[in-house]
Specification:
By secondary structure, this protein is mainly alpha-helical. 64% of the residues lie in helices and 4% in strands. It has a two-stranded antiparallel sheet.
Length: 95
């Protein structure tokens, strides 16, 4: 997975989006594991800030919508749980 992180950081355009989605789908598989960020760091060597950076990138390009709490804070793990349960939304099929 570290190689995919490197690919994400070095690529541009569509390749960067594809690499980002690949990483997000893989880390979403483990979104029900607690404590989540510690699990990713210990098993895959991926830091919390890297996953959050990828999710913010996907939100900026309009590929993903990060869930928000009532006070406006981003809920990253909740968003990953939703991606795990619903990997492809209906609007993606219609495109």
């Amino acid at each position: 997975m570290k190689e995919e992180m490197r690919k994400f950081k070095l690529s541009k355009g569509e390749e960067k989006i594809k690499a980002a989605w690949s990483i997000i789908r893989k880390v979403a598989k483990y979104s029900h594991t607690e404590p989540y960020w510690d699990f990713l760091r210990e098993n895959f060597g991926i830091r919390e800030k890297d996953v959050k950076e990828i999710m913010r990138f996907l939100e900026e390009v309009g590929e993903l919508e990060i869930h928000r709490s009532v006070d406006g804070k981003r809920l990253y793990v909740s968003t990953l749980k939703d991606i795990k349960e619903n990997p492809v939304k209906l609007d993606r099929w219609l495109k």
